[in-house]
């Protein structure tokens, strides 16, 4: 065997040419005391929120929603009108399959993925209801192959602004 010593590990090459990584020490898992130390759920806004979409319940953390404060669920004042005090949940009488993609948007940091069973027009209508940003919707449309036309005379500083769309996909 040939040994190559690193700062924390040893890489060994066996006689048949395979490389084997050997750690000097195993990575240590943090104890629950270490994990709790320095983290305050009250100030970190990690309280759980239940969102009931036409009878289907989803659960996420408040801080996940509040990463997008301009959206319906990310803004406390906007989501308050959908709060059901009796059940302690947000209730929305909306399209359930689309909401899975909306929740993924919040949890993934802004990625939009349309479920295959949801038609484009329904998906886009729901995104408008949840007040997802125009920039995110524009990126989604470009990735999906929507035919878009730029508005003439727009500034070159900001993102493209589109005036018209077509549901026809590029061929």
Characterise this structure.
Among the domains are: 1-25, no CATH class; 47-132, Potassium Channel Kv1.1, Chain A (2-Layer Sandwich), CATH 3.30.710.10. It contains seven helices and nine strands; from the N terminus they run E-E-E-H-H-E-E-H-H-E-E-H-H-H-E-E. The protein has 171 residues and is of the alpha+beta class. The protein has a four-stranded mixed β-sheet with strand order 5-4-7-6. It has a three-stranded antiparallel β-sheet with strand order 1-2-3, with no helix packed on it. Strands 8-9 form a two-stranded antiparallel ribbon.
Strand content: 25-35%
Spatial shape:
globular
Rounded mean pLDDT is: 77
- CATH 4th-level superfamily of the domain at 47-132: Potassium Channel Kv1.1, Chain A
Helicity, as a percent range: 25-40%
> What order do the helices and strands follow?
EEEHHEEHHEEHHHEE
CATH-derived architecture of the domain at 47-132: 2-Layer Sandwich
**Structure annotation, total helices:** 7
Major sheet: order of its strands? 5-4-7-6
Counted beta strands: 9
Any idea what the radius of gyration is? Answer: 24 Å
The biggest sheet amounts to: 4 strands, mixed
CATH topology of the domain at 47-132: Potassium Channel Kv1.1, Chain A
Task: Specify the structural class.
Answer: alpha+beta
Distance between the termini: 56 Å
